């Protein structure tokens, strides 16, 4: 008998108010060493790319879908280290990025000679973003919405700040429509808890949130197979770091580091993609004129 469809899978314990920002601050150096400036999945088109190249390909696909070009006023919802925001700025866009992590913001604000107009980076909660109504022609969120509570409001805020006709691109971690109980217990729920995610919804749930906010979904894809190699690359780099760098080993032995279990989460993520319990969604939507 097939499992009943599930709604959002949530962690067994509530997130602390500073859990997401603290997670990225604590793992700052670790993330930058194993990923680079784009702390998100890569889109592997041949399977032979470096993770740095693949993550940039994903960012460029997002910017293309959101219609980002010369003169576009754009907002990056969860900008991380600013990798995608800087790529948009290099196209001539006027970019505002938001992150909860002061460590990420510090890196994202570092000037780059090749870009004349650097992004504005705010350390601010998206649900209290303070941005004006109808002020952006493009918006994107790459793997940030799953960290946020009150998911319907997340998309309502995106719709509010977009101008009529503005475009929104979303990359989102998702649960399979009917994951098996053991996958929920041993993979998806721990991934939420250890990765500081507020919850994982299936594709239908994400589409419903976008549309309920008043945005029209114009394109949708499942990129799971193309992004899954990210975790094998990251896992190899972590293993190499543990073997060659004493800092990695000291971090894992330090009981005061509340996010050190994320090393185990990397293995869960790889397995969750292999079983199909974890999916990776791509949505493109537009605010009606």
Could you explain the architecture of this structure?
It is a single chain. The protein is of the alpha/beta class and 289 residues long. It has a single domain (19-286), classed as Rossmann fold. Helix content is 43%, strand content 18%. The chain is built from twelve helices and seven strands. It has helices at 19-26, 28-35, 51-65, 83-90, 102-108, 151-161, 181-194, 203-212, 224-227, 229-244, 246-253, 262-275, and strands spanning 73-77, 94-99, 120-123, 136-142, 162-175, 216-222, 278-286. It has a seven-stranded mixed sheet. Helix 5 (102-108) links the parallel strand 2 and strand 3 (120-123). The longest helix has 16 residues, at 229-244. The termini are far apart.
Tell me briefly what this model is.
With 289 residues, this protein is α/β, with parallel strands linked by helices. It has helices at 19-26, 28-35, 51-65, 83-90, 102-108, 151-161, 181-194, 203-212, 224-227, 229-244, 246-253, 262-275, and strands spanning 73-77, 94-99, 120-123, 136-142, 162-175, 216-222, 278-286.
